[in-house]
Each structure stands twice: as C-alpha cells, then as structure tokens.
Amino acid sequence: MSLMPLPSSRFLIAAPSSGSGKTTLTLGLLRALRNRGLTVQPFKCGPDYLDTLHHGTAAGVPSLNLDTFMASEAHVAETYARYAAPADVAVVEGVMGLFDGADRMRASSAAVAELLDLPVVLVVNAKAMAYSVAPLLFGFKNFYPGIRLVGAIFNFVNSASHYQFLRDACQDVGVEALGYLPYNPQVAIPSRHLGLSIDAGIQYEAIIGQLADMLPQTVDLDRLLEITRGAAPVPAAVPAPVVPTDRPRRFAVARDAAFTFTYHQNLQVLAQLGEVTYFSPLTDAALPPATDLLYLPGGYPELLAEGLSRNAAMRASVAAYCQRGGATYAECGGLMYLGQTLTDAQGRTFPMAGVLPCTTSLENSKLTLGYRTAQWNGMTLQGHEFHYSHLTELKEVLSGARVTNAKGVEVPAKVYRQHNTIASYLHLYWAENPAFINWLLSLPANP
C-alpha cells in the first residue's frame, strides 16, 4: 500500500504590481516560519536570480526558479514537486504583477499558480488606499477563474484603524484579510535595477531577522498556514543527464561578490555531469587545476571592476586557459570580464582578462531586458537578457545562431565565439537541456 503524502502548506505570494513589497514580505515569512522549526522551501516565479539569493539567506536552503517560458510546464512541475515534497511549507514568490507575463499571461505568476494548483495570497500596497481596495481585490479574485485568491496581506499600513478599512473591504469581497505590515524604513532593502540590491554593506541578516520578529505581531501566520494546507506534491522520476565520457568532468564556476547570477538548477546539472569547483576572480590567484569547462556567470562586475582588474594573476590565468582552447561559457558579467576593458558608470576604465576583442561600458547606460530564445547547432535554449552595459561590437559571431524575443521577433543580441569561448549577454537556462553542456565539452581543440 502506498503512503499518502502528508499535508503541507503551500502558496504563492503575488501582488497587483511591482513595488508592492512582496519580496520583503516573503523574506520575513520565510524566516518567521523557519523560526517556528518548520522546513521551508522557497521558490521564485520568473527569471530573477537576485530574489533567490535573498530567499536562501532567509530560509537557509537554495531557492528554485519556476519559469514557464524558460522551461516546459512538465519541468517546472517536476522541479516544484521534487523540492516542495519534503518541506513543511512551500513559499513561491511571484514576479511583477500577478498577471504580468512574457506575452499577456504567459509565464506569469498566475500561470504558475494555475499549473501547480497553488492558492494565491495577494500583497497590496495600501499606503494611499483604504476601502477603495475592495474593487481591486474583487478584480483580482474574479478576473481569471484558473486561480484561487484566498487571502490578502497589506503593506505600508499607517495604523490599526487604517487596517480596519482594509479588513472591511476584504470581508465584502470575500477575500480573507490575513494581516498587515506597518511602514518601517528600518526593514527596507534598497533596489538596484529591477531587483533588491545585493550590496555587501547592507545588513541583510539583521533586516530579515527584524522582519521575522515583526510579522507575527500583525500577520496571522497560523491562519495563513491553515487556509493554504493541502497534500504535498508527488515528484516524478527523472533520468539523470547522460555523461558523455567515462570520467567525471571538472567544472570551474566563478562565484563571489562580482559573479552571483546563477540558477540553482543549472548548477545541479553540472554537479550531475561532473565535479564543480567554485573560485573567485576577485581573490584567487588561478583557475582550479585540470578544468574541463570554465563558467563565468553574470553579476555586477562593474561594481567591483577595480578589484577584478587588480587581480592580474587571475586575469592572466583565465586568458591563458581560453587562449589554449579551454572550453569556456560566459554570460553577461562574464562576457564583460573577458573583454579588454570595463568602464564603470563614473567613467573609470579598468583592464579585464583581454580574451575577447571588445570593451564594455556603463556610461550612458540603457536597459536591455526581456525573454530570449537562442537557436544554433540544432539546439534551442531559453533564457533572458538583462543589462545596462553596452559593448563595442564583436565580429566573432557564432555561426548560425539566432536570438528572438518572447513574441518570436529577432533581436540584436548575439552569441559570440572565439576559439572555444562562447559568450553573450544572455542568461541561459539549460537545466532542461544538459545537451548544451555536453556540446560545450565537445568543442574541438582547434576550431
């Protein structure tokens, strides 16, 4: 006789729009529930790799991305089930507004909630709103029958009497009021670009701890767990990626304050294919020995350009590896690091690794953002593009590569290749397509 999964609480934290404070609230919830001795598994809708970093700090375990543009629905459902099944509580943070997707609702928080049958808790910025929140809640509750809006938590509430107006609105609409957070500048985390900052000078642990202490005073956590309780998902069996050789490959992955933009699922694929060693371009003197594939992910190299440039030994080690034909994959910040120079927003120029014949700059910066599909060599890979820097054009474009946006329209983004170095501004999600890593490993020694 098979055992039925034990009941657990699972829900999606959404908002009417960005800037409602859902990430701050999510961080407080994760830590407050963890403080109760519960095992808490965080997830993030969409391609965001900044919020997942903060989730990990709050929950003590890695946060997983759930994105139905970058991955198939089956892959998203399997990822969610595998990591949520052993947890007491699964908390999925939405992206932007509840219904905002790559193309209408596609890849939106609502799409993920429907796919995974997750009850939705709406976080509403009530700073300048009282009973008028009623039609807003009514609209979000009734707009799309595929989701279940079960409760609301209000942010930036001025007082208990202010909250009473909001409770009245919830009662009249049929959405349960679960509590509120008062405005408190001491627990505000500054934003950088489109995500919360990862500035090392911000005391994240102290802020998250304070949030966790505040929440139970005004948010009914017991009721939240009660109305979101249900059977835990059952993970499906998934075959391990095929290892192309009879020996594990060695992957060198840059990870420090300058290179932090990674997807946990991508790194898990590397760990299944071989041995992963992390190194720091800021502080280490050389690449790990016997590297088979060098991975330089995105990050904020522009904020630490002076330190990266000062580490001449590492720059020389990376350049020597690439120049002798070592397989290398660099995305966004990694691309910037492999260029000749990097110019920051203040106009200061720093030498970089000098592998690629290009320069990058943050002067006169302009945001480039959006989902992307890249096709070449019979492969199709999804990801997204998100950067403010620009580069002098490279002529070494990967033959046959084509990049389109979420609507299938070709975009200027390019995939570059020099020797066995593949680089672009794209952040690719290969967790569902480990053939991409095997292709990188199979690049000929003399292309």
From TrEMBL:
Q: Mind listing the UniProt keywords for this protein, alphabetically?
A: ATP-binding, Cobalamin biosynthesis, Glutamine amidotransferase, Ligase, Magnesium, Nucleotide-binding
What's its EC?
6.3.5.11
Q: Which organism is it from?
A: Hymenobacter frigidus
Q: Where is this site: Increases nucleophilicity of active site Cys?
A: H427
Protein's name in the database: Cobyrinate a,c-diamide synthase
Domain CobB/CobQ-like glutamine amidotransferase intervals: 252-433
What SUPFAM superfamilies does the database record attribute to this sequence? Answer: Class I glutamine amidotransferase-like, P-loop containing nucleoside triphosphate hydrolases
Free-text comment on this protein's domains from its UniProt entry: Comprises of two domains. The C-terminal domain contains the binding site for glutamine and catalyzes the hydrolysis of this substrate to glutamate and ammonia. The N-terminal domain is anticipated to bind ATP and cobyrinate and catalyzes the ultimate synthesis of the diamide product. The ammonia produced via the glutaminase domain is probably translocated to the adjacent domain via a molecular tunnel, where it reacts with an activated intermediate.
Disulfide bond listed as a keyword = no
Q: Which PANTHER family match?
A: COBYRINATE A,C-DIAMIDE SYNTHASE
List the NCBIfam families hit by this protein, alphabetically: cobB, PRK01077.1
The record's similarity note reads: Belongs to the CobB/CbiA family.
